[in-house]
UniProtKB/TrEMBL annotation, chains A, B:
SUPFAM superfamilies listed in its UniProt record: Homeodomain-like, Tetracyclin repressor-like, C-terminal domain
Keyword field contains Transcription: yes
DNA-binding residues: 31-50
Domain of life: Bacteria
Full protein name: TetR/AcrR family transcriptional regulator
Length: 196, 196
């Protein structure tokens, strides 16, 4: 038992270190060596966790996705419909330090998923989970009357996912134009419209 | 004079071949060798055009961006406001063969722009151009009465850019969920809302 716990804890430490290194230094500078140095591990030991660079990128993305979802869950307590949707958007949009760092992991993940079926599958599952969650929140909002737009929920889900993913690019590659305030105005005005 | 024309024509051929190779085979498979093979050029001759891989990615992105804008301009003749906005979205959204191929160049470009100031600058200029164009189209739409939403134009510009960039990711990495029909429904319902 203790051995299993150690192993899981080690995995978590590695995942934390990996996503942070990618976010702060970029994917190219995040070598196996950089990770083992940061963790104080023997160089060869990491091969067991990451047979190649895509395994490393996968671990980093999964960690970022899990962290985002944990924050969403924590803040969702007692919230439904439009208020829940606002929390969801705020925790994904790169308008804070942590979400901006997370976006810097997502961009290289996408590029690698283009040429790696396993990463593409991880992405598909992540988006399937968000689609389901967004549909549930929208249905709640319809029932309680906070969401009243005539636009169909399926189209709203797609608009939200596209906007939130696109904001990752705009904010990270153009922070002077897509400021945090601009992102807030973008999403708040969109959410306001849902209540009309 | 003929020499200059030849040179420009050569540049155009190289740009066309490069973006297509990246779109069809991926960024990693688009080596200098793959490009010279496709063009029937001597291997060393390409170094003059592309000192490194980022130069190649820049050329491919600029070509894709120019091609997109050329199609938009061609289709905009006589159109204003909401109708013009629809054309703009249709030519950017990856809901056709050509725009889907273009998205496959944009994703690796973003990833490299994260760590390359020159590519980031190219992206900033591209987005500045689109912001300006979108603002002009929205102002026209307000004047002619086809755009009547109470949401401010600056927020609309940001929503549109985020949604169109995000659609690149969703469509390329999840074509079974984000089908072409789904993209059309996403954008049409958004545009309908602007007229309300």
């Amino acid at each position: 038992m203790p051995k299993k716990v150690d192993h899981q804890q080690r995995r978590a430490e590695i995942a934390d270190t990996t996503w942070r290194l990618i976010a702060e230094r970029g994917i190219d500078a995040t070598t196996m060596r950089a990770i083992t140095d940061a963790l104080g591990m023997a160089n060869g030991a990491l091969k067991h966790y990451f047979p190649d660079k895509n395994a490393l990128v996968k671990t980093a993305f999964v960690r970022v996705f899990d962290n985002t979802n944990t924050r969403i869950q924590q803040r969702l307590a007692g919230l439904t419909g439009l208020a829940a949707l606002r929390v969801f958007c705020q925790e994904v949009m790169p308008a804070e330090d942590v979400t901006e760092l997370e976006a810097r992991v997502v961009l290289p993940f996408w590029q690698r998923a283009l040429a790696d079926a396993q990463l593409e599958e991880v992405w598909a599952e992540a988006m399937a989970q968000w689609r389901q969650q967004l549909r549930r929140i929208l249905a709640e909002g319809r029932e309680e009357g906070t969401i009243r737009t005539p636009v169909a929920d399926d189209a709203l889900v797609e608009q939200l996912l596209a906007m939130l993913n696109g904001a990752q690019v705009l904010a990270v590659l153009g922070p002077d134009e897509t400021t945090r305030e601009t992102q807030q105005a973008m999403i708040e005005s969109y959410l306001d419209n849902l209540g009309r």
